[in-house]
């Protein structure tokens, strides 16, 4: 779900009641031009299929409502409450 704090509006997406979404991370697009110019990266659990996947959403405008631009099936289950963050290569290089 993406909220617009200035209007109170929102856009949302769900693959259905069999999908349980975990805490998302935001990865800015290279040379981003606005605060929503990037990707939402979210671990998802599907107990019906007994599998975890990563769903990637384009955050620009209302594109989240269109669904994921990528779905990556994981080889093992990702536990609920899993935390992650995105760190750019530029930041990693600075930390060396």
Descriptive report:
- With 96 residues, the chain is mostly beta strands.
- The chain has one domain (2-87).
- The protein is built from 1 helix and 7 strands, in the order βββββββα.
- The chain has one helix at 89-95, and strands at 2-3, 10-11, 20-21, 25-28, 38-46, 51-58, 70-73.
- The strands form 2 sheets. Strands 3, 4, 5, 6 and 7 form a 5-stranded antiparallel sheet that branches.
- β1 and β2 (10-11) form a beta hairpin.
- The chain is flat, with a radius of gyration of 15 Å.
- The termini are far apart.
- The mean pLDDT is 89.
Shape: flat
Along the chain, the helix and strand elements come as: EEEEEEEH
Q: How many helical elements?
A: 1
Taking the sheet with the most strands, its summary is: 5 strands, antiparallel
